[in-house]
Automatic annotation (TrEMBL):
InterPro entries: Bact_solute-bd_prot1 (IPR050490), SBP (IPR006059). The keyword Transport does not apply. Residues 27-50 are annotated as: Disordered. It holds the Pfam family SBP_bac_1. It comes from Gallintestinimicrobium propionicum. Keywords: Signal. Residues 1-19 form the signal peptide. This is Extracellular solute-binding protein.
Length: 574
């Protein structure tokens, strides 16, 4: 065992506490790495039945649990004794035993300690940082030999939808599959411009696409009374609140990410230059240019004057005082509520475009949720079965009421949300074709699209003609209950995802999402330095020259050392 490296991780975890292939043959399971053969499958079990085949003898697997303290658990049940665990035992003969249960907020901290002390459970649900640590310390076993036989067709479709980026992410440097991922929705990492179309119409303006056009529109939204109430009370561009971030990794509601990517700036991302050398996106010259431009918007009163100060950026938006904000497709859930509260016609665009006329955007990680098996686990295929069971029956449990009063997200072992990476684009395409009469509701395979059928049923009741215009006036609000329940999601898909389907964009991926040795002791302070400096520059408390001082301090305070470590890890993976 790599004792020295494990000790480093243990020390880091302690600091956290103080601070708060080919298929295996049908008929047999188990792993040689686990020290022997596991429980046999029932004799004569067909290969196609393995994903949900019941073991002839009880198989016990040990997990760690994260419990939502606000979960409503029916009387007589507990986190460690409930209907889901009973069904797994009855239908699959899998006995789930929790070695420990922590609150949801403490789960990561507890798992970090387990990794550091090499006392990990047999099966685990871990985040990206923990997954990298488990790989680094050689604590988990390859599971690719089980994938072909034990992953259900539905699970395979989800995994394969993530494409090459996801495949690379879940494999070690030898190309062995090491984790079962829950793919992130690709669209979730793309931040776009949401804009009040009715304000544009009131002022006789077109939707902006370039930086200069956006500036002109934002100025009009601030100075020309777009809501017609005769008061100087409107915000051109909304910004993040005091608990939010100017820049994020992936989806960042109210963040200003597109204002940076328009200048090829990608703060918080590790980028490779033309020579293959890694550089931290927050310290580049492009970021300096972007910060100066954003600071200019603030100085001119075009960005929310209470940026990074107000408690909740949703408040002015829902009050009808905001003309532009940035965020991913799912912001339709936010503006859907605004639509119900007032006449606010929100539309989404890839704006602002860069000087070359292209829209550049950083992307989310292909996944941030991994199910892995320790080297001591004798039945890693049980993880596939537990996940297959959830994917196959979750919606049916809800529809039939079998699990009434129980939440899978609160109580189901190894729970993650499984979707196709391109789920939203598929939904947009199907709904558009359905409204156009090109397909019928019975022409779609819903087996891996659990919400699509209800979306199709709802949109026929909520959408008016013309069916290819998703402006506010062409939605039906007569059924208030249906509108409150379904309209935010439909706006998210048909308005929020429209740019991803109809416009081109250049995706920019993070080159590194792990954690180096020096990060354990210095990254928190470097992040604080970055966020405080960016906030001061944007709000004019310091000039743009402060960026150069920030870069020097960042590099001297551990940044250079971390960059070297990141480079070494990336080189080792090639």
């Amino acid at each position: 065992m790599k004792a020295k490296k494990v000790l480093v991780w243990l020390c880091a975890a302690a600091m956290l506490v103080s601070a708060a292939g080919c298929g295996s043959p049908a008929g047999s399971t188990g792993s040689d790495a686990a020290g022997g053969q596991g429980v046999q499958e029932a004799e004569g079990t067909a290969k196609e039945d393995l994903p949900l085949a019941k073991y002839p003898e009880e198989v016990t697997v040990h997990l760690g649990g994260g419990m939502n303290l606000n979960a409503k658990i029916p009387e007589g049940m507990t986190y460690e004794d409930n209907t889901f665990l009973d069904m797994l035992k009855e239908d699959l003969n899998i006995n789930v035993v929790y070695d420990w249960v922590a609150s949801s907020s403490d789960y990561d901290e507890k798992m970090n300690l387990c990794i550091g002390s090499n006392t990990i459970p047999e099966l685990m649900n871990v985040n990206a940082e923990q997954y990298r640590a488990l790989l680094k310390y050689d604590l988990i076993q390859p599971i690719g030999s089980y994938y072909e036989d034990y992953a259900s067709d539905k699970l395979k479709s989800y995994v394969e939808s993530g494409g090459e980026a996801l495949q690379k992410d879940i494999c070690n440097e030898d190309g062995e599959m090491m984790a079962i991922p829950a793919p992130n929705i690709t669209a979730g990492g793309v931040n776009e411009m949401w804009i009040r179309q009715d304000w544009l119409d009131n002022l006789g303006l077109e939707a902006p696409r370039t930086w200069d056009e956006m500036v002109a529109v934002a100025e009009a939204f601030v100075k020309e009374d777009p809501d017609g109430n005769g008061e100087n009370d409107t915000i051109g561009i909304l910004g993040p609140a005091n608990s939010d971030y100017v820049n994020g990794n992936g989806g960042n509601r109210y963040g200003l990410d597109p204002l940076f990517s328009a200048f090829q700036s990608y703060p918080k991302y590790w980028m490779k230059d033309d020579s293959g050398n890694v550089v931290y996106g927050s310290i580049t010259e492009e970021t300096k240019v972007a910060l100066e431009k954003v600071a200019g918007l603030y100085a001119d009163g075009l960005i929310d004057p209470e940026i990074l100060v107000r408690n909740d950026s949703s408040e002015p938006l829902l009050a009808g005082k905001v003309g532009i904000f940035f965020g991913p497709w799912w912001c339709g859930y936010t503006v859907g509520d605004a639509i119900l509260a007032q006449e606010a016609d929100w539309q989404a665009y890839f704006t602002p475009l860069a000087e070359d006329g292209k829209f550049y955007t950083h992307m989310a990680e292909p996944t941030t949720k991994y199910v892995v098996a320790s080297k001591e686990c004798k039945n890693p295929e049980a993880a596939f079965k537990i996940i297959n069971y959830l994917i196959e029956y979750e919606q049916g449990w809800v529809d039939s009421g079998v699990t009434s009063g129980l939440s899978t997200s609160d109580l189901y072992p190894l729970y993650n949300v499984y979707d196709n990476a391109n789920e939203i684009e598929v939904s947009w395409d199907c709904l558009k074709k359905y409204l156009a009469g090109e397909i019928g509701i019975d022409d779609v395979d819903y087996s891996t699209h659990k919400l699509l059928k209800s979306d199709m049923e709802a949109i026929t009741k909520l959408k008016k003609e013309p069916y290819d215009d998703f402006s506010l006036e062409y939605w039906n609000f007569e059924d208030e209950d249906l509108a409150k329940t379904n309209l935010p999601r439909l706006v998210s898909i048909m308005v929020g995802d429209a740019p991803l389907v109809n416009e081109e964009y250049v995706p920019i991926y993070n080159s590194y999402d792990g954690r180096t040795k020096t990060m354990d002791s210095k990254w928190a302070n470097l992040k604080k330095l970055e966020e405080e400096t960016f906030a001061k520059i944007i709000t004019g408390k310091v000039g743009i020259d402060a960026f150069d001082s920030f870069v020097e301090e960042w590099k001297a305070s551990g940044g250079d050392e971390i960059t070297k470590e990141v480079q070494e890890e990336l080189d080792a993976q090639q």
